[in-house]
Design brief:
With 311 residues, the chain is α/β, with parallel strands linked by helices. The chain contains 11 helices and 11 strands. The longest helix is centred in the last third of the chain and has 18 residues, at 293-310. The two termini are 33 Å apart. This is Tetrapyrrole biosynthesis uroporphyrinogen III synthase domain-containing protein.
Length: 311
């Protein structure tokens, strides 16, 4: 028996469709509120199906503290003083670092010394506010904030420029129960190629959320596909969903056949490439991936374009 094509009919526009459209998304809790609100602003209904758990732990906070405290009993300066840059590739990394700073007795940087460049992607940089800088150093002039024009880890490496054998601290996730996506290893490699000495810091954990995370996707797909789109914001989320589907005896091709009208959206080209490498085809990729507005707008634009073609 031949299966029907993925899109046998024009995809309806949710904003003008009579029924309420449902947008599934696999984002972890720390990002869920932002994306859910943007989905609702479009008049759609969010269906949160987190496939990974992202959070700091006592162990990861302790790992961060290692760099906030003096190197030894006879040292007065923290290990962070040895670094010229601090590069965050995620919002969670900043939050975890800030949490460790909050329980540190004194700022890790002395008022006098070389400038430390702190880099973050897109809207994540909003967390590098006056409070964060104050926790880092009493003298804000020692801190330089860098936000790359292209909100990807490779864009961040480009923006940092030539390292000239200087050290850069990279707070990244420790991946548990899933294969580590190539994003972080490639980022560290890119920094090395530019002459930096990258030091990996496992600042938080990314863990598979378990089989239960696919329940809503499985149930909705059995209801003649009770959702119109699914949004992925990281490669780990894609792998987490695939692993959960397997627990139910399903794979991605089965979900696609059950949901021929479903649009699969990715937050930026990095997530899209990761999804494709796992066998999950992507229909919509946000070109503005500095925030989740981009992927939601791209999804809206996709439906409007198809509606115009139909008319």
């Amino acid at each position: 028996m031949q299966h029907p094509p993925l899109f046998p009919f024009p995809i309806p526009s949710p904003e003008n469709n009579k029924r309420n459209c449902v947008i599934a998304f696999t984002t972890p809790q720390n990002y869920a509120g932002r994306l859910s609100e943007l989905i609702q602003l479009k008049g759609w209904t969010p269906l949160w199906c987190p496939t990974v758990i992202v959070e700091s732990t006592q162990q990861t906070i302790s790992s961060i503290h290692h760099y906030l405290n003096p190197a030894g009993t006879h040292e007065s300066n923290s290990l962070l003083e040895e670094f010229s840059a601090l590069a965050f590739t995620s919002r969670t990394g900043i939050t975890a670092f800030s949490e460790a700073l909050s329980i540190n007795p004194t700022p890790p940087l002395t008022p006098n010394g070389e400038i430390l460049t702190i880099a973050a992607l897109g809207k994540d940089a909003e967390l590098l506010d006056r409070d964060f800088i104050g926790k880092m150093c009493e003298n804000p002039e020692r801190i330089r904030i860098l936000v790359p024009p292209i909100a990807t880890p490779s864009g961040l490496a480009d923006a940092l420029g030539l390292g000239q054998e200087r050290k850069v601290l990279c707070p990244v996730p420790s991946v548990i129960g899933l294969d580590e996506p190539p994003v972080v290893p490639k980022f560290l490699e890119d920094l090395s190629k530019r002459g930096w000495i990258p030091v990996r810091l496992d600042a938080y954990e990314t863990r598979w959320a378990g089989a239960k995370c696919a329940v809503d996707v499985v149930t909705k797909s059995e209801e003649e596909c009770g959702f119109d789109a699914i949004v992925f914001t990281s490669t780990g989320e894609v792998e987490g969903l695939l692993k959960s589907l397997k627990e139910f005896g399903l794979d991605w091709s089965m979900v696609r056949r059950r949901c021929p009208r479903m649009v699969v959206a990715a937050h930026g080209p990095v997530t899209a490439a990761g999804a494709e490498s796992l066998g999950v085809g992507i229909d919509v990729v946000s070109s503005n991936f500095g925030s989740f507005d981009g992927v939601v707008d791209a999804l809206s634009h996709k439906w409007k374009s198809l509606e115009n073609q139909e008319s």
